[in-house]
Amino acid sequence: MNPFEDDELTVPVRADLSAFEADLVAATRLADRFGTAIGGAFEGAILKGKAFGDVLRELALRLSRLALDAALKPLEQSLSAGILGLVGGALPFARGGAFSGGEVVSQPTLFGLSGGRRGVMGEAGPEAVLPLARGADGRLGVQAGAGGAVTINFNVTSPDAGSFRAAEGQIQALLARAAARGRRNL
Fold first, then answer.
1. Contact assessment for residue 76 and residue 98, using Cβ atoms and an 8 Å cutoff
2. Comparing C-alpha atoms, which of 152, 156, 157 is closest to residue 179?
3. How far is CA 154 from its chain centroid?
4. Which residues pair with 118 in a beta bridge?
5. pLDDT, tens digit, for every residue of 34-55?
6. CA 143, CA 136: separation in Å to the nearest integer?
7. Considering all CA atoms of the chain, what is the largest pairwise distance in Å, rounded to the nearest integer?
8. Hey, which of 15, 28, 113, 182 has its CA 20 to 30 A from 48?
9. Kind and range of the H or E element at 104?
10. CA-CA distance, 42 to 33, in Å (whole number)?
11. HSE-up of 133 (CA within 13 Å, CB side)?
């Protein structure tokens, strides 16, 4: 008996299928239109007594129209995106324009990106817009508000002054390292 025979591995997969679903809906609509065109052509032949040659010509014309519509759809979308890019380029959102002070966006809102690209925020619910800052370690993150000076109280208990003087250098080095770590993590 194989000890791995009954083992099962389950891996959750999360994927954004919205683009696939949109393409599937578009393909379904195109297939429906294709079926309607063929059905209409044969209906004309059967119910209206049209000649078979006329039915085929009408079917070819309908299918050509469907193919042309499908071929022109990407061009139409590109033109729409280009016009939006031209108009949206005048919007002052990129480079810290309108959304830089901690606002909350609660509805779908277009904003400009570098290179004339577009972005949408707030499409899935409220989103906070917070300023980013690069830390001492080079990481980019949300900037915390500075609350002013920090006071650290450090109490040392020693049996006598001689013991304290002996450990004083070690204590100072320990405090300097702790303060440096704190500055790096801000």
1. no
2. 152
3. 47
4. 112
5. 788 777 777 777 777 777 777 7
6. 12
7. 118
8. 28
9. strand 104-105
10. 14
11. 10
